[in-house]
């Protein structure tokens, strides 16, 4: 019975939602995320188009083999350069 009397008053005791940021903060967050996505795409696309890796070799016939080797192992050094020749 007491519940029925106090039920209409329960709307007055509802807490208002707390808003900790304004519109400028929301736009800043969206802008930052957009820039990060765009820059990530630019960096990723660079790996798949163009010539992402160049190995220096004297013989142009070995260039394709050297590029594959550098792509897999990360480096390619000819033995004659290690001796200081």
UniProtKB/TrEMBL annotation:
Keywords: Cell junction, Cell membrane, Gap junction, Ion channel, Ion transport, Membrane, Transmembrane, Transmembrane helix, Transport. GO terms for biological process: monoatomic ion transmembrane transport; phototransduction. It is a multi-pass membrane protein. It is found in: Cell junction, Gap junction; Cell membrane. It comes from the Eukaryota. GO terms for molecular function: gap junction channel activity. InterPro entries: Innexin (IPR000990). One of its GO terms (cellular component) is gap junction. This is Innexin. It comes from Lutzomyia longipalpis. The lineage of its organism: Eukaryota, Metazoa, Ecdysozoa, Arthropoda, Hexapoda.
């Amino acid at each position: 019975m007491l519940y029925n009397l106090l039920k209409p008053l329960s709307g007055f005791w509802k807490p208002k939602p707390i808003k900790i940021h304004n519109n400028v903060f929301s736009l800043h967050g969206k802008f930052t995320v957009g820039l990060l996505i765009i820059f990530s795409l630019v960096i990723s696309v660079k790996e798949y188009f163009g010539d992402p890796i160049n190995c220096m070799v004297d013989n142009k016939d070995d260039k394709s083999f050297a590029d594959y080797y550098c792509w897999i192992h990360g480096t390619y050094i000819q033995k004659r350069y290690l001796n200081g020749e």
